[in-house]
């Protein structure tokens, strides 16, 4: 670790780490340059007082109020990282706050397609266990129910991460939330197709979670529609498949 620390510290004039991450923290060369999600931290930049109101989050960095038109505590951390860098190259915190207040988000990162009949539809690039769990959590501040759909990609990665997917998703689902999956996206290659997204759904069912498998994603909305009544979020998740953008538009138009 000392060798890595020396290497990084000597290749950058300004070296900033996220002290909330135990491994990154070991690389720190100056706490006052770093950032962390903790009021008790000795980091130079701290984000506190997180709250989410619908599709807007607010928090405070070093005594300055920030508002961001996006969801999830992870986006507070992303903003904190950007602010820590910007401030140390000469941008004051109030200017950072004013700029971030107008932030509109990026493509397929909790991209809000709109609201129909009380259903917010959101498309997200989440594709690994932790990101899927965080994506679901971020949507929980919008409505009392989240119906999350996920298309895993790659048979090898899904097989390797099966237990992690089940553990992470099961841990964040509220009683009213649901997880749906369609079959794994095949990205090519010679891998064995000896696992199905249905296997993950069965694992989640065994834990008592409301989990549903729809092999053909084109039938998802048809089957899931009765579950979308009332105030809820429909969250679509997946990556690598170039057809996901078109699928989201198709679902939105038919919602």
Return the structural class.
Answer: alpha/beta
Topology order in helix (H) and strand (E) letters: HHEEEEHHEEHEHEHEHEH
Q: How does the major sheet shape up?
A: 6 strands, mixed
Radius of gyration based on Cα positions: 20 Å
Compose a concise summary of this entry:
This protein is α/β, with parallel strands linked by helices and 255 residues long.
Question: What can you see in these coordinates?
Answer:
The chain is of the alpha/beta class and 255 residues long. The protein folds into two domains: 100 residues, UDP-N-acetylmuramoyl-L-alanine:D-glutamate ligase (3-Layer(aba) Sandwich); 144 residues, Mur ligase, C-terminal domain (Protein-Tyrosine Phosphatase, Chain A). It is 36% helix and 21% strand. The chain contains nine helices and ten strands. The strands form two sheets. Strands 5-6-10-7-8-9 form a six-stranded mixed sheet, sandwiched between helices. A four-stranded mixed sheet has the order 1-2-3-4. The longest helix has 18 residues. It is globular, with a radius of gyration of 20 Å. The chain starts with a helix and ends with a helix.
